[in-house]
Amino acid sequence: MDRAMWWTAQIAQVRDEIKGACRRAGRAADEVRLVGVTKTLAPEAVVDLIRTGLRDVGENRWQQARPKLAQPGADTLTWHFIGHLQSNKVRPVVRHFDWIHSVDSEALGRLISDEAVRQERTIHVLVQVNIAREPQKSGVAPEQTRPLLETLAACPGLRLEGLMTMAPAASNPEDVRWVFRALRELRDEMERQTGIPLPELSMGMSGDFVPAVEEGATMVRIGRRLFPPMPGEDDVVS
């Protein structure tokens, strides 16, 4: 079995788990977009990734993403920027990424908007909310979400899609279910208060995506479950 086949099998297993979570929640499986987090993959692995059929991929840092974006076929993928975005990296990220999951300030939103207009692009954006109020993580506090949503909704070049969060690390995913439920409830409240449609909830990673889907995730961001080393390999990192 080559690496693309190995990863394809892992992707199929994760999709089956997503389907099971959707079934338990009374949802359709096609409501959930699987975003493969490729931060640990070497640039040349993009060729194998394309062969798996996965089309949504996420990167945390521009420096790590840059050589992957230059690989043959990389432009056939939909690229999601999911990490903290520094202001001096806005220009290349807007040029190469379709989605930015991590907008956490009005200043950053306006920078993305200005650059999107300059490049004649429309960028799908999500507001990152620090539901668990972890000081080491980015994101607005829940009570600060509304003014940021209203600002972004009025910015040209942006398509405001919804909210994103990261749950605290936990050995038992049930321990962080409340985070996902709280983001869904916040989204519902923001839609009622503002009238802004917020269809997307980006939440859930390798260790906790099942309760995230059961609580309403429309995007899950998964890396190590999709791209483990092949049997006999030590790692997939360059």
Structure overview:
- With 238 residues, the protein is α/β, with parallel strands linked by helices.
- The chain has one domain (3-222): Alanine racemase (TIM Barrel).
- The chain has eight helices and eight strands.
- It has helices at residues 3-25, 46-52, 62-69, 90-96, 106-118, 145-153, 177-194, 209-214, and strands at residues 33-37, 56-59, 78-81, 99-103, 123-128, 158-164, 200-202, 219-222.
- It has an eight-stranded parallel beta sheet with strand order 7-6-5-4-3-2-1-8.
- β4, α5 and β5 form a beta-alpha-beta unit.
- α1 (3-25) crosses α2 (46-52) and α4 packs across α5 (106-118).
Quick synopsis:
The protein has 238 residues and is α/β, with parallel strands linked by helices. The protein has eight helices and eight strands, in the order H-E-H-E-H-E-H-E-H-E-H-E-H-E-H-E.
